[in-house]
Amino acid sequence: MPPQTIGVIGAGLMGHGIAYLLAAAGHTVRIYDPSAEWRASLAARLESARALLGGDPTLLGRISAHETLAPAMKSASFVFEAAPEKLPLKQQLFAELEALTAPDTILASNSSAIPSTRIGEKLKHRERVVGTHFWNPPHLVPLVEVIQNEKTSDETVRRTMTLLADAGRKPVHVKKDIPGFIGNRLQHAIKREAIALIASGVCDSDTIDEVVKSGFGARMAVLGPMEQSDLVGLDLTLDIQNVLLADLDRSTEPTQFLKDKVASGKVGMRAGEGLRKWTPESADAVRERLRQFLVAQAKAQASRG
Ligand SMILES: NC(=O)c1ccc[n+]([C@@H]2O[C@H](COP(=O)([O-])OP(=O)(O)OC[C@H]3O[C@@H](n4cnc5c(N)ncnc54)[C@H](O)[C@@H]3O)[C@@H](O)[C@H]2O)c1
Question: Is 250 in contact with 243 (CB distance < 8 Å)?
Answer without folding.
Answer: no
